[in-house]
Amino acid sequence: MTTRRMPIWLFLVWLLAFEAILVTGIVLMLNYAPASYHGPVITIVALLAVAAIAAAAFRVLWNPLLAEFPTQEVPVTARKKSFQSFSFGFVNMGLSINAATDDEFLHIEPILPWRALGARSASIPFSAMTPSDRGRTVRIGKYTMTGPKWCFEGASRTTDEDGSS
Question: pTM higher than 0.90, yes or no?
Fold first, then answer.
């Protein structure tokens, strides 16, 4: 059984409604709560709101994009770098991905805080990637992934070996 992805417009409607409720709550608190509560309450509510929005975005936008690419074991010999920037579909993960490449896969793992909020890791086979002319972008299905050039070198090799491109 496959689950349908939530359309981006529905996520944005949810986000706007959530933000409206949040702002209304803060305004009411500023009007009716003692002034000594303002700073701590706004700080806690803002941190919880950021966590809730990030968790929802990972579950609704990021994870469905990577659902068909389960994580594979990363070989000891894989080339690895931390805090890399990737953009995939509607999601931009700037300086938030630990990446590794081996002969077959690009392994992407969100940093620990994002994994704690539900962002999944994935191992994307180079055979599923269609390189672009720029070297920093590839097509994976109907979506474009942008990232460091070194991460997509395997996709270029796969294309060259097939004799296409």
Answer: no
